[in-house]
Each structure stands twice: as C-alpha cells, then as structure tokens.
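Suppose a colleague, Dr. K., hands you the sequence of a protein chain of 162 amino acids and asks what its three-dimensional shape might be. Before reaching for any lab equipment, you can write down a predicted structure in token form. Begin with the sequence itself:
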Amino acid sequence: MSNLESRILDALKKNNIDYEVQIPVPINEYPWKTIRSKTPPKSDIYLPKFDLYVEVKGFMTYQAVSKLAYLSKQKFHYYIFQGTEPQWDPSIETYLSKENQVSLTKKGILNSLIDFQVKELVNLDSAPDVFFNNISQISLKRLQNYISVKINEYKDWNGEWY
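The predicted structure, expressed as tokens, is then:
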C-alpha cells in the first residue's frame, strides 16, 4: 500500500466511512485482458455505502491513462484520485469551494490537491446528486483536462503536437 493510499484510508477511518481495499470492479471484458487474467481489474478503495470504486493514481503513464479512461466510461461509479501530478485539477465540476493555490511550492500544490480530493470523498454524504450520479464522467473530464495540459506542455517544449 502506498503512502497516498494510507493517507486516504486514515481520513476515511477518521470520518467513520466504511471501505474495502483491492475490490474487483464489476467488469468481465476489458481491452487489456489476457488469458492469464484470472480476475477483473481491482480498485484500490471501494466505498460500499456509495457503491463507489476509487482508483488512487501516482505517476500517470499512458497505459494508466488509457485504463482510467476506459474504466471511467463503464456502468459503475468510478472516482480517479490523483496524488502526484500538480497538473491534475480536482476542482473541475466539484461541489466543494475551490481553494486558492497562489504561491505554493510543488509539494504544497500536491498536498492541497490531495486534501481537496480527500474532502470530496469524506463529504460524499453532502454532495449533490448531480455530482455523485456523474462522478465517473467528472473523473473522465478531469482526466481529459490533464491530458490537454500535458499535450500543451509537449507543444511548449517541442513545437506542434503530431
């Protein structure tokens, strides 16, 4: 278990939110399935009260981005929790008030983003239905924004995107 996952689980415990870890998502067919795949992909955290699968991501590889996008489009509630990329914007379509990150260090920005996402999870009881009912699509929008930021970074460094 990563330090980030431990931090999230500690917050869930502190707020008396039941959770399970390493629970398979309800899917039988997926593009990266092989004959050696014995079980469906697992989510890092499952919140049974909300029937919500939470994937905690550190470094974002293109394979991880592809899997996250695919799982966000399925017929179950899926939340992407990103904790190592300062370009991740958890304030997209959130129900929480946005926090000001002016003049924070990279570490400060990451801590702020992590704290923001923890607040979203521990306050799901007070979240509007429109947020929770669209949580997978909101995660996908956040992922799409992250990809756009990375493509723009590529353009800034290397010229036109291919």
